[in-house]
């Protein structure tokens, strides 16, 4: 399951003071930037390539493990307890990475630069590790039932990663748009990199916890209860205990 993050508001960018704001937040000093000359603004709009926001959700790699017993899985499960036995487990690691590129023009008269960045973000969940307790060997009815249940968790994780990617793209597009940003060349490089790293990546990660609602629906009380009756009682016979459950 993903780590917990406090919900955050979507970051925003100031078209002209982005670099100065980030330096100030870091406790560093920054001189007030002069207003870019109108001729330079016109030149930047004319010569800079179009900006872009590209957010990709990468396919999940799924790894299977069949060597752990139910008791060991129960200890590893987030909600493990004495009253329940874990039959299967799906573990996922949500990841974000970001980069930017783009031409920078410099006004020799003022030392100011302009850039219209192309922002790239990758959202990935994986590898996802699916484990079925070794008490249920491959080929048994219970094995396939448990594996099918865990694959629902796999699909929920992938679907949520795609939703997070869509949210990120919409929010980043509103913030960056096709705007031209101004500052010194060094400030722009730092500003774009730090804005993505310190603001947008944490904001995206804060959205990952939303997948928990989907997992709760999959792990319903009715689904837990079914473990005792499916496959003609194969689960309690193998474990010698009722109230077995599956946990993502």
Short description:
The chain is α/β, with parallel strands linked by helices. It has helices at 18-25, 38-47, 70-76, 141-176, 185-206, 211-218, 221-226, 230-239, and strands spanning 52-57, 62-65, 85-86, 88-91, 94-101, 104-106, 113-115, 118-125, 128-132, 181-183, 244-245.
What does this structure look like?
This protein has 248 residues and is of the alpha/beta class. The chain is built from eight helices and eleven strands.
Write the layout of secondary structure elements.
Elements: H1 18-25, H2 38-47, E1 52-57, E2 62-65, H3 70-76, E3 85-86, E4 88-91, E5 94-101, E6 104-106, E7 113-115, E8 118-125, E9 128-132, H4 141-176, E10 181-183, H5 185-206, H6 211-218, H7 221-226, H8 230-239, E11 244-245
Parallel strand pairs: 1-8, 2-9, 3-11
Antiparallel strand pairs: 4-9, 5-8, 6-7, 7-10
Overall mean pLDDT score? 83
The neighbouring-strand order within the major sheet is 1-8-5
Total DSSP helices? 8
**Rg value:** 25 Å
Poorly predicted segments: 1-9, 12-31
How many domains, in number, for the residues?
A: 1
Roughly what fraction of the amino acids lie in strands?
15-25%
First-residue to last-residue Cα separation: 8 Å
Largest sheet: 3 strands, mixed
Helix content: 40-55%
Name a few traits of the molecule:
alpha/beta; rod-shaped; disordered N terminus
